[in-house]
Task: structure prediction
Amino acid sequence: PPAGPTPTNDMDVDDDDDGGWREGVAAAAAATEPEKQQERSADDVARSREIARSALQANRQENDGRKPTVAIIVCFRIQAGQRREQELQQFVPHMRAMMDKLKKEGEVEKYHIFVIQQRGSQDKDGIKFNRGKLLNIGFDISPPQFDTLIFHDVDLLPGEDLAPYYACYPRNPIHIASCWHQRGYTQNEKFFGGIV
Result:
């Protein structure tokens, strides 16, 4: 398995040493889900894009211009009462379009989307969704040629203004999902999930 810490469902983050990412990502966008995106003003999107580009430029300088090879790891399980299959059908083409653009622009060397599916369904087999275990599996199966891992919820579709964060080679974890205020991702300072 690749070297480094094993990701879990409750990762521990040193709030004092986030390299400024938390502030930058939190300011990057108020909402980027498709139904909410139209409510954002052009000024908000432009501001978000500028903050993300500045973060990417700082990241490039900090890492001697290194461009990442990105593995996006998505946990998935079909469950009654949820739209996970539909969300996955939206997620994959959305992310491919965004990542293909980053690759074409020379911002990432390569990328791959890994969908890690838990079989069964809690309503049928009684076994709860184990996101932490699925993230660990994704970590273990991603080839060592990928130097940047992004743990992603299937129901979060980032706007183009957040794309530069997907092209960063981080020294510290980046909580990209912290921009989703309406989902409560910023209400609990100890929450570290959604998109990391």
Notes: The helical segments are 21-28, 34-37, 42-62, 84-104, 122-125, 131-141. DSSP finds six helices and three strands in the chain. The two ends are 20 Å apart (CA to CA). The chain has a mean pLDDT of 75.
